[in-house]
Design brief:
Largest sheet: 5 strands, parallel
Distance between the termini: 35 Å
Shape: globular
Number of strands: 5
Number of helices: 6
Strand order of the largest sheet: 2-1-3-5-4
CATH topology: Ribose 5-phosphate Isomerase B, Chain: A
Structural class: alpha/beta
CATH class: Alpha Beta
Length: 153
């Protein structure tokens, strides 16, 4: 994986409080941030902020993304609707590492209501430093898109 120079970031109201922690961590690592919102903890619909993260990656404006919502599920599902996005819902550092190593995840979805701030930061660090292993995993990742899957009727 090329070094991450720019990362897209998005969250709903549940993820807003963690978002500043993420920004601080990314800035410490010298990573530019495309903050797609939300910008308050007032109730907000996660797709409004997750679609722009996915689009930024699709368009090459960012190399990867971090998305935050209460459970992480809705955010991951939304991001994964976009071509070329592989959003992984993770709740441990080890899962974040495996998502990168085996699945070439390019978006980390964090369930803020289920992980501590320290755990979220550990996952982010692991996600950013872990490389995709390729090899047999590349073959599998290439089959994620329905167009490349075998027909198992």
């Amino acid at each position: 994986m090329d070094p991450i120079r720019t990362l897209a970031l998005g969250c709903d109201h549940a993820g807003f409080d963690y978002k500043q922690l993420v920004i601080d961590e990314l800035m410490q690592q010298g990573i530019a941030i495309l903050d797609k919102g939300t910008f308050s903890n007032e109730s907000a619909d996660y797709p409004d902020f997750i679609h722009p993260v996915a689009r930024a990656i699709e368009r090459g404006q960012a190399q990867s993304g971090i998305i935050l919502c209460g459970s992480g599920n809705g955010a991951a599902m939304t991001a994964n609707k976009h071509k070329g996005i592989r959003a992984a819902l993770c709740w441990t550092k080890e899962l974040a590492e495996l998502a990168r190593q085996h699945n070439d995840a390019n978006v980390l979805s964090i369930p803020v209501r289920f992980v501590s701030e320290a755990c979220a930061l550990d996952m982010i660090r692991a996600f950013l430093k872990t490389e995709f292993e390729g090899g047999r995993h590349a073959r599998r990742v290439n089959k994620i898109s329905d167009e490349t899957s075998i027909n198992l009727q």
